[in-house]
């Protein structure tokens, strides 16, 4: 039975399939013993093809399941999305830490599992505290204890982190110094990658669900279309790290993703539900997405450049400005996003693992699905702060109200002069 | 030798399961730690040739300590700009020391591209942080010059692009046999950047608050180092922690009290001078840094009632102190109680990687990192302390942020502020017309 030798360290799920395939094959082979050699060969190759297609089908079904789950969560609202992001972050952290334990055979290090989870909790507390203070300002102003927590938030987070640091130093055991330092560094790099990214995702989400959906969909679309283009047309290998990737897949994926992003942006920009910043209303005690859509999400007429005029036979076209931005987002997703995938591939080769974990049958772990998303969230966040919006107005107001009265008066006068200069405020008539 | 045998066995079992990468690690473990290099300058050697080696060592350390302290005073005298540059140089040297240790541990000095990439990442992260600092503190200067204004407006985007370029270069430089080593060095570089660069920028933020916020914490840590050593030398008996067998409880506690007293005295002396107490500002007209202001409430003498128990001892009813001295007690306490954990961390690190010192830059003391290991957490603590307890948000930064908002948002904030001020009675209809 040499045809389908199992590659080393097969994930358990596909081992199951391979085993069932092997079982099926042995059954078939037993009945084929009587047949001639050539007919044996044909039957064996038929079974091989069947198993390959079966694998393909499993991947396909799981992909559709994940996409439907995605749609379901979107329907259920921003709060569920936040919880989902948190859940994914914790799972990714767990997967990478487990790999670290295996690499260093350090599962039994004293205290270390506790410390890793403790650091995860600290960093999450810090980031969530900052988010809550920004976006839930009205809610926070009401509660006294929350006020205290918010005012001294940085100090409390730092104290919590320090406690973990001191525990680490006190837990250093003579024979295991190096291992402990390795695991300490491993934990911190993992936190840097997973936790900061997930919080940037949540900040993007608060800008408007479209800033969450379009980037993630572009990356997923690029994954799928690059795979399909590579499957049907792939010939020139792209990079030694991932031998299955091809230039045809890369370029085909790029164009399809730009088109997909363009269309998705057009479809989503119509609905207030996706386009409005997420706000917390204290009266309703829930998240609402209701607003006057910004300029970015209102149809504008654009004059087509001449060569497109000839092709499309139209003078102007109605587009949302956001669609132009979506081209930038899709381009990043197709050109730079794959580097996140290559990074993860290199990581898996470096540590001789096939997949990050076996959570999703046919796909590997959660990390495997999200490796291309690494850089996307940071890019979208940087893009928004640089090109779309300025600082958050409610945060500026919040900080203004904390200042000393004389500072407030000074600022008031400066602002008044500025606004009058710009003509935004009419100078008051003297009574 | 028995210890080495046991360690060898452990390493052999580890090496069997892993690849060439950890083979190189086990080779590093089997090598004996390098013998301490005697690089004391010739001058000192000749001067101390008569003394026995133990006293000679003590004298070398002593002289170098005084030299470093004198150097510190000179730099303070030269002003904030020079201080900033010194902080930057110390940061680069620390980074270089830690990265060199990484190369030695992993025998990865010849990895393709890696030295370039490490320095490139250092440059990127520094560019990002310095850009943020410059935008905050040099706002008016930046707004005037066109290229600076564009750089500052798109600062985050530019920094991110630079970092991404480094990331992509790293991915493209992955070589088949060296994957694991390359990932290790990548992780090592990032953790080093996290420790060294962020701390140094927090130090510079503290400096801009007022030089006293830079000098008092650093002096407290140095004082704690020296005092704990002295107390330990004369009275030390009970060992403190297995990691550093030379530290003792007597040294720890004696150092704590000595540092608190030193902090109180130093803050009293320094709070009197404007050049230490005022925030550092960039003056557009003179194109230089100035430290001139009305000292804030924190730095004005106030009367405090002494609690009854101390009244009988000292014989005074009240005492005149600067409020800053109360804060200095908090700073000194942190320096004495938690600062040493930074030192233990560094000791553990040195033991883990079997090195005696980070480098041999300073004779008798080791590398720059050895001197600054206790300062790790101090800078972050002072920064967090200032942000939480001392000052609120920076008014000029707020105006800056305000100016980037949309007009309708600006109007909304202006009106809210106006109604708030009127409610509080700070603003009245009369003053409105000014």
Automatic annotation (TrEMBL), chain A:
<keyword id="KW-0443">Lipid metabolism</keyword>
<feature type="transmembrane region" description="Helical">
    <location>
        <begin position="64"/>
        <end position="88"/>
    </location>
</feature>
<dbReference type="Pfam" id="PF01148">
    <property type="entry name" value="CTP_transf_1"/>
</dbReference>
<keyword id="KW-0812">Transmembrane</keyword>
<comment type="similarity">
    <text>Belongs to the CDS family.</text>
</comment>
<feature type="transmembrane region" description="Helical">
    <location>
        <begin position="208"/>
        <end position="234"/>
    </location>
</feature>
<keyword id="KW-1133">Transmembrane helix</keyword>
<feature type="transmembrane region" description="Helical">
    <location>
        <begin position="246"/>
        <end position="268"/>
    </location>
</feature>
<protein>
    <recommendedName>
        <fullName>Phosphatidate cytidylyltransferase</fullName>
        <ecNumber>2.7.7.41</ecNumber>
    </recommendedName>
</protein>
<comment type="pathway">
    <text>Phospholipid metabolism; CDP-diacylglycerol biosynthesis; CDP-diacylglycerol from sn-glycerol 3-phosphate: step 3/3.</text>
</comment>
<dbReference type="GO" id="GO:0004605">
    <property type="term" value="F:phosphatidate cytidylyltransferase activity"/>
</dbReference>
<feature type="transmembrane region" description="Helical">
    <location>
        <begin position="322"/>
        <end position="344"/>
    </location>
</feature>
<keyword id="KW-0808">Transferase</keyword>
<dbReference type="GO" id="GO:0005789">
    <property type="term" value="C:endoplasmic reticulum membrane"/>
</dbReference>
<keyword id="KW-1208">Phospholipid metabolism</keyword>
<feature type="transmembrane region" description="Helical">
    <location>
        <begin position="182"/>
        <end position="202"/>
    </location>
</feature>
<dbReference type="GO" id="GO:0016024">
    <property type="term" value="P:CDP-diacylglycerol biosynthetic process"/>
</dbReference>
<keyword id="KW-0548">Nucleotidyltransferase</keyword>
<dbReference type="InterPro" id="IPR000374">
    <property type="entry name" value="PC_trans"/>
</dbReference>
<dbReference type="InterPro" id="IPR016720">
    <property type="entry name" value="PC_Trfase_euk"/>
</dbReference>
<feature type="transmembrane region" description="Helical">
    <location>
        <begin position="148"/>
        <end position="170"/>
    </location>
</feature>
<comment type="function">
    <text>Catalyzes the conversion of phosphatidic acid (PA) to CDP-diacylglycerol (CDP-DAG), an essential intermediate in the synthesis of phosphatidylglycerol, cardiolipin and phosphatidylinositol.</text>
</comment>
Automatic annotation (TrEMBL), chain B:
<keyword id="KW-1133">Transmembrane helix</keyword>
<dbReference type="GO" id="GO:0016024">
    <property type="term" value="P:CDP-diacylglycerol biosynthetic process"/>
</dbReference>
<comment type="pathway">
    <text>Phospholipid metabolism; CDP-diacylglycerol biosynthesis; CDP-diacylglycerol from sn-glycerol 3-phosphate: step 3/3.</text>
</comment>
<feature type="compositionally biased region" description="Basic and acidic residues">
    <location>
        <begin position="1"/>
        <end position="28"/>
    </location>
</feature>
<feature type="transmembrane region" description="Helical">
    <location>
        <begin position="157"/>
        <end position="175"/>
    </location>
</feature>
<feature type="transmembrane region" description="Helical">
    <location>
        <begin position="210"/>
        <end position="236"/>
    </location>
</feature>
<feature type="transmembrane region" description="Helical">
    <location>
        <begin position="324"/>
        <end position="346"/>
    </location>
</feature>
<feature type="transmembrane region" description="Helical">
    <location>
        <begin position="113"/>
        <end position="130"/>
    </location>
</feature>
<keyword id="KW-0812">Transmembrane</keyword>
<dbReference type="InterPro" id="IPR016720">
    <property type="entry name" value="PC_Trfase_euk"/>
</dbReference>
<feature type="transmembrane region" description="Helical">
    <location>
        <begin position="182"/>
        <end position="204"/>
    </location>
</feature>
<keyword id="KW-0594">Phospholipid biosynthesis</keyword>
<dbReference type="GO" id="GO:0004605">
    <property type="term" value="F:phosphatidate cytidylyltransferase activity"/>
</dbReference>
<dbReference type="InterPro" id="IPR000374">
    <property type="entry name" value="PC_trans"/>
</dbReference>
<feature type="transmembrane region" description="Helical">
    <location>
        <begin position="248"/>
        <end position="270"/>
    </location>
</feature>
<dbReference type="Pfam" id="PF01148">
    <property type="entry name" value="CTP_transf_1"/>
</dbReference>
<comment type="function">
    <text>Catalyzes the conversion of phosphatidic acid (PA) to CDP-diacylglycerol (CDP-DAG), an essential intermediate in the synthesis of phosphatidylglycerol, cardiolipin and phosphatidylinositol.</text>
</comment>
<feature type="transmembrane region" description="Helical">
    <location>
        <begin position="58"/>
        <end position="78"/>
    </location>
</feature>
<keyword id="KW-1208">Phospholipid metabolism</keyword>
<comment type="similarity">
    <text>Belongs to the CDS family.</text>
</comment>
<keyword id="KW-0548">Nucleotidyltransferase</keyword>
<keyword id="KW-0444">Lipid biosynthesis</keyword>
């Amino acid at each position: 039975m040499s045809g389908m030798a199992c590659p080393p360290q097969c994930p358990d799920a596909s081992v199951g399939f391979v085993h069932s395939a092997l079982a099926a094959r042995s059954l078939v082979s037993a009945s084929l013993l009587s047949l001639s050699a050539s007919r044996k060969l044909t039957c064996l190759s038929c079974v091989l093809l069947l198993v390959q297609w079966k694998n393909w089908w499993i991947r396909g079904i799981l992909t559709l399941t994940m996409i439907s789950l995605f749609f379901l969560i979107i329907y259920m609202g921003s709060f569920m999305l936040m919880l989902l992001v948190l859940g994914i972050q914790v799972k990714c952290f767990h997967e990478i830490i487990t790999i670290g334990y295996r690499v260093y055979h350090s599962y039994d290090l004293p205290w270390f599992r506790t410390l890793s989870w403790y650091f995860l909790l600290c960093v999450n507390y810090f980031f969530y505290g900052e988010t809550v203070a920004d976006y839930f300002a009205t809610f926070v102003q009401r509660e006294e204890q929350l006020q205290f927590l918010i005012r001294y938030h940085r100090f409390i987070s730092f104290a919590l982190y320090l406690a973990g640091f001191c525990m680490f130093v006190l837990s250093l055991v003579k024979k295991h110094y190096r291992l402990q330092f390795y695991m300490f560094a491993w934990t911190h790099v993992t936190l840097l990658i997973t936790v900061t990214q997930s919080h940037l995702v949540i900040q993007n989400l608060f800008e408007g669900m479209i800033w969450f959906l379009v980037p993630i969909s572009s990356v997923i679309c690029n994954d799928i279309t690059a795979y399909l283009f590579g499957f049907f047309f792939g010939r020139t290998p792209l990079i030694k790290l991932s031998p299955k990737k091809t230039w045809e897949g890369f370029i085909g994926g790029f164009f399809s993703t730009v088109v997909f992003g363009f269309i998705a942006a057009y479809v989503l920009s119509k609905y207030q539900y996706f386009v409005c910043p997420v706000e917390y209303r204290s009266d309703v005690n829930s998240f609402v997405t209701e607003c006057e859509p910004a300029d970015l999400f209102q149809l504008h007429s654009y004059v087509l450049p001449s060569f497109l005029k000839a092709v499309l036979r139209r003078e102007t076209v109605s587009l949302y400005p956001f669609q132009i931005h979506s081209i930038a987002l899709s381009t990043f997703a197709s050109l730079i996003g794959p580097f996140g995938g290559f990074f993860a591939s290199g990581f898996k080769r470096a540590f001789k693992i096939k997949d990050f974990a076996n959570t999703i049958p046919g796909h590997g772990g959660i990390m495997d699905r999200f490796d291309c998303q690494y850089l996307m969230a940071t890019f979208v966040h940087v893009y928004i702060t640089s090109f779309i919006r300025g600082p958050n107005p409610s945060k500026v107001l919040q900080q203004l109200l904390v200042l000393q009265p004389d500072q407030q008066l000074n600022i008031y006068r400066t602002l008044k002069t500025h606004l009058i200069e710009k003509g935004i405020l009419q100078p008051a008539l003297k009574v | 030798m028995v210890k080495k045998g046991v360690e060898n066995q452990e390493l052999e079992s580890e090496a069997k399961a892993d690849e060439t990468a950890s083979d190189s690690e086990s080779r590093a473990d089997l090598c004996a730690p390098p013998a301490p290099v005697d690089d004391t300058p010739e001058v000192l050697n000749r001067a101390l040739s008569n003394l026995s080696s133990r006293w000679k060592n003590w004298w070398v350390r002593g002289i170098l300590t005084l030299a470093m302290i004198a150097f510190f005073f000179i730099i303070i005298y030269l002003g904030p700009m020079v201080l900033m540059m010194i902080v930057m140089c110390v940061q680069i040297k620390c980074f270089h020391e830690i990265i060199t240790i990484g190369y030695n541990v992993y025998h990865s000095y010849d990895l393709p591209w890696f030295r370039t990439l490490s320095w490139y990442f250092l440059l990127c992260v520094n560019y990002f942080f310095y850009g943020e600092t410059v935008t905050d503190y040099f706002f008016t200067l930046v707004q005037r010059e066109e290229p600076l204004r564009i750089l500052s407006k798109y600062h985050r985007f530019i920094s991110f692009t630079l970092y991404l370029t480094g990331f992509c270069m790293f991915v493209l430089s992955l070589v088949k046999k060296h994957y694991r080593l390359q990932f290790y060095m990548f992780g090592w570089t990032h953790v080093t950047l996290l420790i060294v660069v962020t701390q140094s920028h927090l130090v510079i933020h503290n400096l801009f608050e007022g030089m006293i916020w830079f000098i008092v914490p650093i002096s407290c840590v140095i004082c704690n180092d020296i005092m704990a050593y002295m107390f330990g030398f004369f009275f030390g008996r009970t060992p403190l922690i297995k990691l550093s067998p030379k530290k003792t409880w007597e040294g720890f506690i004696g150092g704590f009290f000595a540092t608190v007293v030193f902090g109180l005295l130093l803050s009293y002396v320094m709070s009197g001078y404007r050049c230490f107490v005022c925030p550092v500002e960039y003056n557009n007209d003179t194109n230089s840094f100035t430290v001139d202001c009305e000292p804030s409430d924190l730095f004005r003498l106030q009367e405090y009632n002494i609690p009854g128990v101390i009244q009988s001892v000292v014989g005074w009813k009240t005492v005149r102190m600067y409020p800053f001295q109360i804060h200095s007690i908090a700073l000194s306490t942190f320096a004495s109680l938690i600062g040493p954990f930074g030192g233990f961390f560094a000791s553990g690190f040195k033991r883990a990687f079997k090195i005696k010192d980070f480098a041999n830059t300073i004779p008798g003391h080791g590398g720059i990192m050895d001197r600054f290991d206790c300062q790790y957490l101090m800078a972050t603590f002072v920064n967090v302390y200032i942000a939480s307890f001392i000052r609120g948000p920076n008014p000029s930064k707020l105006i800056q942020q305000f100016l980037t908002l949309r007009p309708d948002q600006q109007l909304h904030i202006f009106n809210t502020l106006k109604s708030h001020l009127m409610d509080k009675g700070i603003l009245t209809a009369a003053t409105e017309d000014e």
